[in-house]
Amino acid sequence: MPVAKFLKARLEATISFTIATIIEFNTGEAIIANQHKTEAAFWEQKTLAEMTTVEWESLCDGCGRCCLHKLEDADDGHVYYTRVACELLDIAQCRCQDYENRGQRVPDCVKLSIDQKAYFNWLPESCAYRLLAENKPLPSWHPLITGTQDSVAAAGMNVSNIAIKETTLTDLTTEVIALKSLA
Fold first, then answer.
1. pLDDT at 110
2. Gap between the Cα atoms of 91 and 85, Å rounded
3. Which of 12, 42, 44, 163 is in Cβ range 3.0-4.6 Å of 85 for a Cys bridge?
4. Distance between CA atoms of 92 and 41, rounded to whole angstroms?
């Protein structure tokens, strides 16, 4: 084999290694989304409906925003976020404390799936599920882009510094907040 051809083959083999992006998911388990470095990112190649369970779950950036209580204006449908977190949210970690059983413990918790697309409007504008459903790119701080979960907090996009625990609080209207936007 000529040297140039050998070097080209070796370079291609080196470039085409597989990166394992480890994403700490709500269960505390590591979910590994293998992404081939020479291929386009799976979220740019597939629709939400075409994704595997691992790919779907890896879209969650762990911001905790979907776990904040929301109020919807009955007149215009606008969704307002409160700083009150679901009882299962570990605010410091921005993770569900019982992800596997959340539906049984919190009956109004929506298990997000492509079949639940009608609920995407209440997801934060920064949410990967909503962004991809709207044919928009993932933000530069998303863990699938950066390779680290720490990028969400560094960008100020998680709720660890603003959320409060759900208690006997009855008037959520006093806790309405404006979330940091993508812009």
1. 84
2. 8
3. 163
4. 30
